[in-house]
Amino acid sequence: MSFDLSVFSNKNIILAVTGGIAAYKSAILVRRLKDYGFNVRVVMTKGAQAFITPLTFQALSGNPVHTELLDPEAEAGMGHIELARWADLILVAPASCDTIAKFAAGLADDLLSTVYLATKAPVWVAPAMNQQMWAAKPTQRNLNTLVEDGVHVILPESGSQACGDVGLGRMPEPEDLAEQVKDYFHQAQRAIAEKFGLLAGKRVVITAGPTREAIDPVRYISNHSTGKMGFAIAAACYSAGAKVTLLAGPVSLDTPNGVKRINVSSAIKMLDESLHQLEEGCDVFIATAAVADYRVAEVAEHKIKKAGDELNVSLIKNPDIVATIAKQEKRPFMVGFAAETRNVEEYAAGKLVAKKLDMIACNDVSRADIGFASDENAMIVFFAEQYQMEKRDLEKASKQEIAQQLVEAIHDALHNEIEPV
Ligand code: C5P
């Protein structure tokens, strides 16, 4: 599953490292969190510094490392209260018995325990210790207290330990921890989008990419559509709180995060799947696919052998997917696309009516800098007459930005006070 790394660039993680041999894994954890785009600041206890140096974490996090509570210089940079407020999440990994005990007792005799008391952010601890120390009654008692206090405890794994023992007490791998952090923020963002996003709770179906029309078992007719615009729209709809199904022709793009992808090949298959999706429930149908206008009348059962100087293949018209869906009784809000090389606005407005669409986005594919295969696009959006909405010019921008503006246009039309007839 692909992931947009910029998503978490506004999220701040304090990684607190305490004394334990697992501290070496925390260095990799910083890297993985940074890979996801998080801002990371590291707090180290005295015990941690016996295992690994602050310099390592400074280099990896790109930020000064916080070690002292009452150091005027460090406090002038970012004091403990400011640090506690800065954090969106505090992850203590590894968490020693000593730190867990301090948290449980509410002590505030070093930087980390003070930040713990001063923060409103969620706190996660990943205990790592000798299996006997893990099983010890005071440790279990303190952990129960932490759970009661709302701390999320990431259970240690079982295995061979640095001390030679075998049992529970190993810190999970840094990749797993970073992924849990990413999933937590992702779910939180999702919950907000599903409640307040522009397309909150809407079910959106999007067709994207080219279709592939078989000539024989090894050959086909297709086009150069890359599917980038449709995939960008799928991602934008998902971010806006929609449930998104992407009917993708053959393209080499990663599935956007959270989007359900169904791969289809021919126009007929794309239409069948579109009708099926309609039955499942669909509020908005967005047709970005470059559907082949014609398919081969009779697909050869076996590979056609070379013979003679000419080969005639007879083609028949494919069904118009978007127009077919628009004719259905329970029709969703219909969005079409038009790629033209001339009279762009006139042709697009004609298609809006002819295909009974609610909205059409058109672009001028004669421009080399936008459209097909490009990462940028510029579009003009028209709405069906009954919406009484002005056309919108979406100026040249990345396909992601254009997708966002299209989501806004869909939202505005859906919430237009004038009832469409
Ligand atoms: O007629 P034209 O191909 O220019 O129309 C483009 C619009 O119609 C796009 O939204 C495209 O996805 C959709 N379309 C379709 N099925 C077809 C042809 C086009 O859904 N067979």
TrEMBL record:
The protein's annotated pathway: Cofactor biosynthesis; coenzyme A biosynthesis; CoA from (R)-pantothenate: step 2/5; Cofactor biosynthesis; coenzyme A biosynthesis; CoA from (R)-pantothenate: step 3/5
This protein's UniProt keywords: Decarboxylase, Flavoprotein, FMN, Ligase, Lyase, Magnesium, Metal-binding, Multifunctional enzyme
Transmembrane segments: none
Residues binding CTP, per UniProt: D293, K303, P319, D320, I321, V322, F337, K351, K355
Gene Ontology cellular-component terms listed: phosphopantothenoylcysteine decarboxylase complex
Alphabetized GO MF terms: FMN binding; metal ion binding; phosphopantothenate--cysteine ligase activity; phosphopantothenoylcysteine decarboxylase activity
Region described as Phosphopantothenoylcysteine decarboxylase: spans on this chain: 1-203
Pfam families: DFP, Flavoprotein
Active site residues of this protein: C163 (proton donor)
Known cofactor(s): FMN; Mg(2+)
EC id: 4.1.1.36, 6.3.2.5
Domain DNA/pantothenate metabolism flavoprotein C-terminal stretches: 199-412
Matches recorded under InterPro entries: CoaB-like_sf (IPR035929), CoaBC (IPR005252), DNA/pantothenate-metab_flavo_C (IPR007085), Flavin_trans-like (IPR036551), Flavoprotein (IPR003382)
The record's free-text note on cofactor binding: Binds 1 FMN per subunit.
Catalytic reaction(s) noted: (R)-4'-phosphopantothenate + L-cysteine + CTP = N-[(R)-4-phosphopantothenoyl]-L-cysteine + CMP + diphosphate + H(+); N-[(R)-4-phosphopantothenoyl]-L-cysteine + H(+) = (R)-4'-phosphopantetheine + CO2
Gene Ontology biological process: coenzyme A biosynthetic process; pantothenate catabolic process
Family (UniProt): In the C-terminal section; belongs to the PPC synthetase family. In the N-terminal section; belongs to the HFCD (homo-oligomeric flavin containing Cys decarboxylase) superfamily.
Name the record gives this protein: Coenzyme A biosynthesis bifunctional protein CoaBC
